[in-house]
Amino acid sequence: MLLKFNEQSRTELTIPSPPPEWSFASKAYPIAVVQNNGDIKITIGDPLLSQAFKAFLKKDGTTELTGDWDVGNKNILNVADITLRNADGTVMSVAAGLTRQHFSARHGTVIKSPSCPVRMNAKIKLATQGNIPNSIANDYENYGPMRIAAKPISGGWSIIAEFVATRKSDRVRGILREGVVSGETY
Fold first, then answer.
1. For 56-97, where are the alpha helices, taking DSSP H only?
2. Phi, psi of 4, deg, nearest 5
3. Angle at 121 between CA 155 and CA 72, to 5 degrees
4. Which residue in 119, 124, 118 sits closest to 155, CA to CA?
5. Coil, helix or strand for 52?
6. Cβ atoms 164, 175 nearer than 8 A
7. Strand 124-128 to strand 140-141: parallel, antiparallel, or no bridges (unpaired)?
8. How far is residue 65 from each of residues 70, 73, 79, 120, 137, measured CA to CA in Å?
9. Is there a contact between 157 and 124 (Cβ–Cβ < 8 Å)?
10. Distance (Å, rounded) from C-alpha 81 to C-alpha 124?
11. d(CA 175, CA 152)
12. Among 9, 88, 110, 122, which residue's beta carbon has the most beta carbons within 10 A?
């Protein structure tokens, strides 16, 4: 690249036969002219200097992005943290992890949905704790598999934790809604 300053307060930038990925971006400027030899010459007059370079991303973080940023399937390295602004205005750190809440809950417990970035929805993950509450352990036997689910409700989920068991007193088999699950929201 050749950069020249002349006495008429103009700056000339010549990019010798740039590769296609530079050529396309460079030609987007109305002040860029493709020379006969393939070079691209950009001439900037003094009053235009600040406006011409306005489209470049400044290293000090003062340039706001105006669209999605495609980094060409490359990595962004050595980032101390990335934060996401949630729909409710709160900010969350990606470095701190995206799991919002760990919990242990019984059947019927309502788990509140965490705030999420715009265009994203909260999710919930459940696992059985596998223990039968002591309050029913003496009255039932022949426990079947536990069914767990998170039923979506306004503002969150209602926990479903039920299993089949036989009542010892009359040998009636039925569904008990006494299960306990562990889970997390993210």
1. none
2. -125, 140
3. 165
4. 124
5. helix
6. yes
7. unpaired
8. 12, 18, 18, 20, 60
9. yes
10. 24
11. 21
12. 122
Structure tokens, 98: 């995206």
pLDDT, tens digit, 9 for 90 and up, residues 104-158: 999 999 999 998 877 788 999 999 886 676 667 788 888 888 899 999 999 999 9
DSSP 100-135: -EEEEEETT-EEEPPP-BTT----EEEEE-----HH
CA atoms within 13 A on the CB side of 183: 25
Q: Which amino acid is at 102?
A: H
Strands (E) in 32-179, as ranges, are 32-34, 40-45, 83-85, 91-93, 101-106, 110-112, 124-128, 140-141, 146-153, 156-167, 173-176
* Digit-coded pLDDT (tens) for 124-139: 999 988 667 666 778 8
> What phi and psi values does residue 53 have, to the nearest 5 degrees?
-95, 5
Name the one residue in this structure whose structure tokens are 């715009």.
118
